[in-house]
Amino acid sequence: MKLKLILTVLMVVSSTVTSDDYVRPQPRKTIHLPWDSKLSSFPQQVHVSLAGDKHMRVTWINDDKSAPSVVEYGKLSGRYDAISEGETTSYSYLLYSSGKIHHAVIGPLEDNSVYFYRCGGQGPELQLKTPPAQFPISFAVAGDLGQTGWTKSTLDHIEQCKYDVHLLPGDLSYADYLQNRWDTFGRLVQPLASARPWMVTQGNHEVEKIPLLKDGFVSYNSRWKMPFEESGSSSNLYYSFEVAGVHIIMLGSYADYNVYSNQYKWLKEDLSKVDRKKTPWLLALFHVPWYNSNKAHQGEGGDMMEAMEPLLYDARVDLVLAGHVHAYERSKRVYNGRLDPCGAVHITIGDGGNREGLAAEYITPQPMWSEFREASFGHGELKIVNSSHAFWSWHRNDDDEPVKSDDIWLTSLVNSGCVDQKTS
Ligand SMILES: [Fe+2]
Questions:
Q1: Which of 103, 166, 247, 297 is catalytic?
Q2: How far is the C-alpha of 279 from the C-alpha of 387, rounded, in Å?
Q3: Residue 296 maps to which CATH number?
Q4: Average per-residue pLDDT for the chain
Q5: Is the pLDDT at 10 greater than 70, yes or no?
């Protein structure tokens, strides 16, 4: 009973970070996903992520401690001419014990190619497509997903669009301490996440820290291993990767970010290695937005912005994608609160569909830097056409139909002369 009370208090604290003085449209209910009663060694919750040049990491979970940690794969259905052995982990969390979590890196893989694969020597054959090596490349973007009817709607719309990589700026499952919700989330996203790489960073709902009992990010780090080692980072909470002429930095809003922190040092080092001839586009993702004119989470990103915005500006980051606020907002090019032709475009896209509903109230008047804002569920698509031009569009979940409601052509800062003007 005591445990239930503690959990309830923790859940309330975690889900009411904002003041609830705005009226949100009705959230949809959490989808009921019953536990699958197939064989215990049956692989489930399969998802893939990029893991260094021409490699991908396949992650899956089963309940059989003796099941092999192998991925068989090849370019023809049913004919696997390669096999990779993985590593395994598991964790316990209060009364919950996870299944066996497998991570296996496959490759080298050919670019822009379909591969057939099977996890653990059994289960269904799955398919994935590797990203292209050159432009054009397309990204799907949706944060704060959760696992409600709205999440399903968003995922259905993403499935309809042609994209190469999914970018998720934090808040995945909304498990909020109830660990079986990580399992149901894994099953909900498997059809998409097993077919295209999902690159994620953490949000507040991934923390799940219980003082004196549990460290933070136990579930997230065990289940959603990202290529931090491949990018010279010592933490799964921040890393970078490169794909088809784009360098993407995934930062941690819930890891230390002050100028003496490991994350800050890593970011500085990572930015110094970016070669804009090889990767003309430079993107950054993190959870808590720096430019937000919604009343929800107002000012929460201020400290991180103060510490890190000068680094991103100096490196001429083209585009910043954040979540956390359950709505959509796009800025003009901005730096230090002022319009700046060499600043980044900031987009808040925490509107994936979670159970907390929308953040519907905005500060008035609309700040100078804010170009478009709307509280609706939806997803974004970023098509980088070439080294100079990209097309961004935001698709609202109107009555379960995706409706393009905002779009803009972006010109890279390389092409705007900003990179050549850098002082350092
Ligand atoms: Fe959040």
A1: 297
A2: 8
A3: 3.60.21.10
A4: 92
A5: no
Q: Is residue 23 part of a domain?
A: no
pLDDT per residue over 322-364, tens digit each? 999 999 999 999 999 999 999 999 999 999 998 888 999 999 9
> Based on the domain organization, do 169 and 219 belong to the same domain?
yes
Whole-number Å distance, alpha carbon 181 to ligand 1 midpoint, is 17
Question: What's the CA-to-centroid distance between 68 and ligand 1, angstroms?
Answer: 36
Query: What pTM, to 2 d.p., does this model score?
Result: 0.93
Residue 37 lies in a domain: no
Burial 199-238 (b: 16+ CB within 10 A, else e): bbbbbbbbbbebeeebebbbbbbbbbbbbbebbebebbbb
Is 85 a residue whose pLDDT tops 90?
Answer: yes
What are the Cα distances from residue 319, in Å, to 86, 174, 316, 384, 412? Answer: 34, 26, 9, 12, 9
283 and 166 in a common domain? yes
Put the strands of the sheet holding 82-85 in their side by side order.
Answer: 82-85, 70-74, 114-119, 126-129
Least confident stretch, 57-66, 130-139, 222-231, 336-345 = 57-66
Task: Say whether both 71 and 180 belong to one domain.
Answer: no
Instruction: Name the domain count of the chain.
Output: 2
Instruction: Please tell me the distance between residue 170's alpha carbon and the centre of ligand 1 in angstroms.
Output: 7
Q: Specify if 39 maps to a domain.
A: no
Domain holding 406, by residue range, is 137-411
pLDDT tens-digit series, residues 200-253: 999 999 999 999 999 999 999 999 999 999 999 999 999 999 999 999 999 999
153 and 119 part of one domain: no
Task: Say how many Å lie between the CA of residue 267 and the centre of ligand 1.
Answer: 22
Is 297 an annotated catalytic residue?
A: yes
With H, G, I as helix, E, B as strand and everything else as coil, classify residue 9.
helix
Share of the chain above pLDDT 70, in %: 92
Ligand 1 centre distance from Cα of residue 211 (Å) = 20
Residues 91 and 150 reside in one and the same domain = no
Ligand 1 center from residue 287 Cα (angstroms): 7
Distance from the alpha carbon of residue 202 to the mean position of ligand 1, in angstroms: 9
